[in-house]
Specification:
By secondary structure, this protein is α/β, with parallel strands linked by helices. It has helices spanning 3-16, 35-38, 41-45, 64-75, 88-91, 106-111, 131-134, 146-159, 169-178, 186-196, 207-212, 214-224, 231-240, 243-247, 284-297, and strands at residues 25-28, 31-34, 54-58, 118-121, 138-143, 202-206. It has one domain (3-297): Rossmann fold (3-Layer(aba) Sandwich). Helix 12 packs across helix 13. It is found in: Cytoplasm.
Length: 309
Amino acid sequence: MSEEEELSYSEAIEKAGASISRFPLIPVRGVPLMSYIANNWDSIWAFRPDPSDLLIATYPKAGTTWTQEIVDLLFHNGDAEACKRAPTPVRSPFLEIFSPPPIPSGLDHMKTMDPPRIIKTHLPFQLVPTGFWENKCKVIYVARNAKDNLVSYFYFDCMNLTQPEPGPWEGYLPKFMRGELSWGSWYDHVKGYWMEREKKNILYLFYEDMKENPRREVERIMRYLDLSVSEEVISRIVELTSFKNMKENPMANYSCIPKPVFDQSISPFMRKGEVGDWRNHFTPQQSEMFDQDYEKQMKDVNIPFRDNI
């Protein structure tokens, strides 16, 4: 995307700021999605990717932007300047996003780009357009432990003025447990991709593994993408994608999104990026209640989540 196109993207969001509101959720095949997405569902479902396209899928606030940056740097051999050509949402379009005009939809944005494209989605497995599987596209899925994911999503819903009002923490927690947030149930989301990972050649990553040993996980992503970069480039990518560096990088920290949409004075888009921060939010009673429910909802799978490292 050219500088003019990037500028027009930012300007479009700025212009639409006045008409932005907290959109209601409408279920699509049982999954609550923001009304703008639900109302355009047929065109999203009909999307046909190029076989060379890469899909990065996550439940919201599970390491999406981090993974997008790693992949972009791998494709550009660790060239930091090349990856500062545009903000993350311009470099890596958001498949299902629809907003009020004149903001381009994810589908319109992709029409301006040549494959291979790095495409982002928060859709659960069953709502991913079938073209991705029919064309055997590579898919990277990143999962984050439920408690930290819940805390991060709560702060995101406070500052993202397009999603439903989160209300107080005490009420948000049961909404997460019941799957009543945008993009639905965390439990169904992480299980859906986990159960299909081998059949569909999905690289299933864990946020906690990425925090514990980022170099190892960058190398896993590199091998999955059939790329080969030097040890020095791997080291550079690990450094460039540290939380501190990404938080300070205007091309990755979503500072391009104006305050009427993302109010970063309420909470920064990149808040802490830690494992175990949930302990600062859950009371002992909430933690016990959550753990009992978690055991019931996850009893049919054995996904090796860790809520501390």
